[in-house]
Amino acid sequence: MDENSSERDHGVQPLDELMNAWGVSNHDLVEASPEQLNHKQVAKARRGRQLTLHMMQKVMRGFNISIWNQLKKEEKEKYFEYPHSWLFSYAKGYQAGRVDPNDALKEIVRGR
Fold this sequence. Notes:
This protein has one domain (about 5-95): 434 Repressor (Amino-terminal Domain) (Orthogonal Bundle), CATH 1.10.260. By secondary structure, the protein is mostly helical. Helix 3 crosses helix 5 (about 55-70). The termini are far apart. The chain is built from eight helices and no strands.
């Protein structure tokens, strides 16, 4: 691996952990996205290949919509949409160890 390649690989991202916690697959995210998003792009995002801000936001919107589609009406009112800086460790404004305000909803969705 050359130097430029290793600078663009950031390791498994918080997005991957959140997708597993919510039970969202790559296919769910691609299917829910209203934008042109493909499986390869989602896989790169989860693995930590550096994405542009535009692509991070596209993945973020697809992720939030895929979760939104799983929620019941009363749960949607409690849902906090994830910003891209919570999903990617190399995004500006990322803070490790942040408390997820959706933990209770994740448990409800996983229990179904």
